[in-house]
Amino acid sequence: MKKFLALLSMFGLIFVSCSDDDTVADTTPTPPTPITFTSGSADFSNYVSLGNSLTAGFSDAALFQSGQTASFPNMLASNFELAGGGSFNIPFMADDLGGLTLGGTPISGNRLILSFASGSPAPVPVSGQGSTEVSNVLSGPFNNMGVPGAKSYHLLAPGYGNVAGVGSTANPYFVRFASSPNTTILADAAAQNASFFSLWIGNNDVLGYATSGGAGVDQTGNLDPSTYGGSDVSDPNVVAGSINAILQAMTANNAKGVIANIPDVTTIPFLTTVPHNPVPLDAATADLLNGAYAAYNQALLAFSTNQNPLGAPQITPEEAAKRTISFQAGQGNAVVILDEDLTDLSVFSSALINMRQATADDLLVLTSSTFIGSLANPADPTSINGVAVPLADNWVLTPEEQQIANAAVTAYNQVIAGLATQYDLALVDANSLLVELGANGFTQADGSVVTANFGTGGGFSLDGVHPSPRGYAILANAFVEAINTKYGSNLPGVNPLDFTGLYIK
Prior knowledge:
By secondary structure, the protein is of the alpha/beta class. It has helices at residues 2-21, 53-56, 65-69, 72-80, 172-175, 185-190, 204-211, 236-250, 269-272, 283-303, 317-323, 368-371, 399-422, 430-439, 469-487, and strands at 47-51, 100-102, 105-108, 112-115, 122-125, 132-133, 144-146, 196-200, 256-260, 279-281, 330-333, 336-338, 355-357, 363-364, 396-397, 426-428, 442-443, 449-450.
């Protein structure tokens, strides 16, 4: 009996010991403390955005529903909802194609997609006919007041939404949602009595000049924008007056806001993709071309010395060397271009036109990629554009034209920075952001890098001018950072990986 009791005691010890060893710790994760998002000193309850195509969500050469949903203001609005923000109404296009019609007649093309039909990837319009009819006016008001094509002074222009003026004084995108034919973009925006607003305007005041290869006119000194052409550079005082009027109206009821400066328009893929020397030649063709340009080269040499009919040099030896045209067999021949900044020798001979070969300092527009190598005259197989026939001014932004564009951007950004301070607004340095995107790219959470490389970088869409949805997300985060810093809010931003870098269909 004693042995039995002893065994029981031993089993009891073993049981207690095993029970202690088998004690399992509670590993249930503690739920993270919920983050309470606040607006700081801002009020996001009624947000209105003003601007141009960059505000509207324009992408791949068109405005379409998916792009509008992926606009940076819509991304901001989703953040604002976390801190008291209200609804954000968008004047949606009728479909995802993007084409516009007026009275049933197409007036703009569909969005671009990357096609492999030719054997190599190339941007082509998506098939079908866009169903967005301009004259079908939507009922507002709309929080996204971004209007593709708008310049700074267009936001103040009565009749910019009048369908009768489409093609001249009116904008078809604004016609679709203007409250009346003679209203202004600013009037419709200000009437909403926003508690918070964003403004990104001024890009188009210089962008058209750059993308047209400098074919427009620098209107600095001309304070009458009614005389400007579509590709002209706006006078900085006109831009300053327009932005000041916009800010004055939007802050009249003490609304807070954020404003962005203008990116360097010479660094976009539209101007950095096509190389200056894309022409391959065999030896026979190179010899033929050199023979054809021999007389031109000899005349340049003569006019740079006293061995010409005038007896005195008309150009420097440096300019003569710059204008001398020479081809070699193989890859990498530079295209021949017209350059109005060269000395005009055509008064002495019609054959001495202002032409030279491009250098790495010249920027060829994206659309020149399909023009170079085509025939100027289908009946003449030697009339090759960019080789035997010089490229016209609209295909190339020369260094002198780049200086004009950069001077305008610098002047506009000084204005914007000053007005941001005057009206006590958050300021987004979009210029530095896009320079960084082009130079180094942005590394994402998964290790991938978004760059400005055309078609593959993920930062820009297929038009080479406007960001992709992922590019817009990077911009949205820059806006969020500026807003948080200025107003003490703690908005989380967006994850660029949630947005595509390239629409695949």
